[in-house]
Amino acid sequence: MYILKEITGKETWNNFITTSWFKFYSFLQSWEWWEFQKLANKSVKRLGIYKESILVWVLQVIEVRAKRGNYYFIPHGPLIQNNFFEVLYYVIPILKEQAKKNKIDFIRLNSTVENTIENKQKYRKLWFINAPMHEHAEDTHLLDLMRTEEELLNNIKKKDRYYINRAIKEWVQVRIDNELDHINKLINMHHNHASRVGYHKFPKAFIYNLYEVFWKNISTISTSYNWNIESILMTIKFWDTCVYYIAASNIISHKFSPNYLCQWEAIKKAKQDGAKLYNFWGVSPDDNSKHPIAWVTKFKRKFWWYDYSLLHAQDLVLSPKYYINWLIETCRRAKRGYYYKKPL
Fold it and tell me: What does the alpha-carbon distance between residue 283 and residue 275 come to, in Å, rounded to a whole number?
């Protein structure tokens, strides 16, 4: 018999996630992400499923209200120890009942189950359909940090190691801290880079709120030549996983592109801080050079290990208004050129 309860304790929540040995999890289901959503005036429910007084499932539900439709969004969740679809089958009717009371048009799950035909079919039996657009990383590139620094470096191709070693020889400066001027430099470079290259940029308030909430586990890393920052990035660590989340560059020194050294220093910092896995976040589902993030994907995969593919986000339709949202998001996806890996 399963019992649904709201969880009000940070330790109960985070300890469950960090001691359950999930194959994949991220900071998007952390307690801190709830605090981050509060700063954005979002309504968030933190729910747990208990079986015989044992917590077996946690779910952070973000209530999104927009002109195109209102919906419950579960990013990189729910996190369930065993019998994922059995527990999901139990909880969906409860979520539907609450959703209808709050005039919610659909429920969106961006779950951490693997991208397999079997998992897709199980969602279909619960009347879920493919979401027209992703909201967070679904195809990711992961690096095992349990290797030595020497092994990690040697697994990078010789021509790419050259950039790292050459940058060190050329006295490229490395800075790692969260001073306000460093954060502002990240924001300015990120906005300029996004405008120049044409990718989605995070608003200033969004980035400042990340620092406020994740301060103890967030790092700003930059590399400069002749005191001019050419590459800068942000990582967020949650337990033993570190995510490469925001970055920007303005490369002038192409002979020893400081991007490579910046990323290498971020990996070393994550390892020194006790992370066991480095998550490069979003990558394209294949090697198609026309994919919108093909250029950055190629760079991420140079730090060799493996790709991990989550099942594409799934929507449960609750009202006819959903199809307005479906049309808007479908047009956005087509305009941006995104597509998704089919289940295997």
Answer: 21
List CB contacts of 206: < 8 A, sequence separation 6 or more: 40
pTM above 0.90, yes or no: yes
Strand, coil or helix: what is 204?
Answer: helix
Element (H, E) at 214: helix 204-214
Question: CA Rg, the chain, in Å?
Answer: 21
Q: Judge whether 156 and 300 are in contact, CB under 8 Å.
A: no
Give domain limits for the chain: 2-136+310-336, 140-308
- Which residues, 6+ apart, have CB-to-CB distance to 114 below 8 Å? 23, 308, 309, 310, 311
The confidence score (pLDDT) of residue 20 equals: 85
- Pairing of the two strands 54-64 and 71-75: antiparallel
What's the CATH fold of domain 2-136+310-336?
Aminopeptidase (3.40.630)
CATH code for the part of the protein at 140-308: 3.40.630.30
Residue 243: C-alpha distances to residues 43, 137, 140, 298 (Å) = 25, 11, 10, 17
* 277-282: strand order across its sheet: 173-176, 218-225, 228-238, 241-249, 277-282, 139-144, 306-309
Element (H, E) at 38: helix 31-39
What the block records as the tokens of 154 is 């040697």
Residue 159 has pLDDT above 80, yes or no: yes
How does pLDDT run across 20-53, given as a tens digit for each residue?
Answer: 888 899 999 999 999 999 999 999 999 999 988 8
Count of CB atoms within 10 A of residue 93's CB?
A: 9
Partner residues linked to 175 by β-bridges: 222
Cβ atoms of 320 and 156 within 8 Å: the answer is no
Q: 142 vs 217, 304, 324, CA distance in Å?
A: 19, 9, 36
